[in-house]
Amino acid sequence: MQQISTNTLNTNVQKDLNFTWSTQAILFCAIIIACIGLNVDSAPVVIGAMLISPLMAPIVGIGYGLGNSNPKLLSKATKLFLIQVIIGVVGATIYFLISPLNTASTQLLARTEPTLWDVLIAFFGGFAGVISSAKKDGGNVVPGVAIATALMPPLCTVGYGISHLNPSFIIGAGYLFLINAFFIALATASGTIFFRIRSGEKLNVSLKQQALILIIAIIIVIPSSISAYSIVHSSYINAQLSQFIENQLSNQYIAKQSISGKKIQLSVIGQRLNDDQIKSLKQSLKDYHLDGYQLSLTQLTKGNYITPKEFQDYMKQSDNGDTVQANPNSSGDGELTTIQSDLNKKYPKDISNIYVGQVTDKAKATKQLIAIELSDKGKTKRSTIEKSANKLVKDNQVSAVVQFVSGL
């Protein structure tokens, strides 16, 4: 059984705190690799960058210095940490200034909203790291901690924010990096104190120092706790809204849905709802714990037709993060193209245009739409054409909504 000792911990921490140009060059390379991974939305690349990054060493050194009340070691680790942070931010800023990819990827956006879970990951990750450093053979725990606590990505995101003059990215990612660094250091300090007590050493951490660390920890945790509550609350509300839609709007196709503040916005395609039905829907919100929310219902169908403006807005779907593939007359996806072609061949003089679209929402669920624009002659055959379209949908085993478009 491997022994855990303060001597081993001291040796492992001290050896990684020497300032060498090779180490800083490795850090710079790791930062650029992480930036590329974030830029192209590649998680494996980001993980690889975290594995080669030496950024954990000075943070562990700060925590060890605090736990030992060693001002000299604390100063040395802090200086190295600040140098590496500057190298990281400068490297990331330079990369994103010259990168041709300016859109914020999912990987970048994920680093702008820290929560209480990030605090827990950093603290327990740091504690695992200090235990590993106190063993003669730490195994692969430290690299695992580097990946779990994700120090590199928020630092890169700060560089992205600076290069694009975006304060929300700078503040959000900077706060996430602060959480990770502080609680890794705090966990290291706690682990160091624990090992010293276990070894029978006399502690020389003053009550003033303990109180100061506790106050700083509380100040850092408060915003992340608020953010965590917001995420949990938002998840609950979305779940309730999904239940409401499933039970109350099962015959409608939901083209768009969003929650802004206390307002629920739904855009639907299907049988038109009258005022009494809409009023009943609004009243039923309380049955799904959504009382206090206002329901704004946009019906994209008027009479037998979907309106031109709403159809165009629906096909774009750019305002709520959905992606759409849509093309009139010539191209669709697989079975949609077949249906489009068959209808055009069967009703060449009755159909002016057929629009097919495939929508992938935020939940990665794919839904399809077939919108038919009739000629003046074809309007008298709307019922027949609708039956033919629905039969083709069924025959081709496609889950698609068939609608008619007027005056595009």
Would you give an account of this structure?
InterPro entries: DUF389. The chain crosses the membrane at residues 21-40, 46-67, 79-97, 117-134, 141-162, 168-190, 211-232. It comes from Lentilactobacillus parabuchneri DSM 5707 = NBRC 107865. This is Hydrophobic domain protein. The protein is built from 15 helices and nine strands. With 408 residues, the protein is an alpha/beta fold. The protein has three domains: 6-205, Glycerol uptake facilitator protein, CATH 1.20.1080; 229-299, GMP Synthetase, Chain A, domain 3 (2-Layer Sandwich); 301-408, GMP Synthetase, Chain A, domain 3 (2-Layer Sandwich). Strand 1 and strand 2 form a beta hairpin. The chain is elongated and about 95 Å long. The chain starts with 5 loop residues before the first helix and ends with a strand. The relative contact order is 0.08.
- The Cα radius of gyration reads 29 Å
The CATH topology assignment of the largest domain is Glycerol uptake facilitator protein
Task: Based on the coordinates given, report the CATH architecture of the largest domain.
Answer: Up-down Bundle
Major sheet size, sense and barrel closure:
6 strands, mixed
**Measured distance between first and last alpha carbons:** 77 Å
Instruction: Write down the overall mean pLDDT.
Output: 77
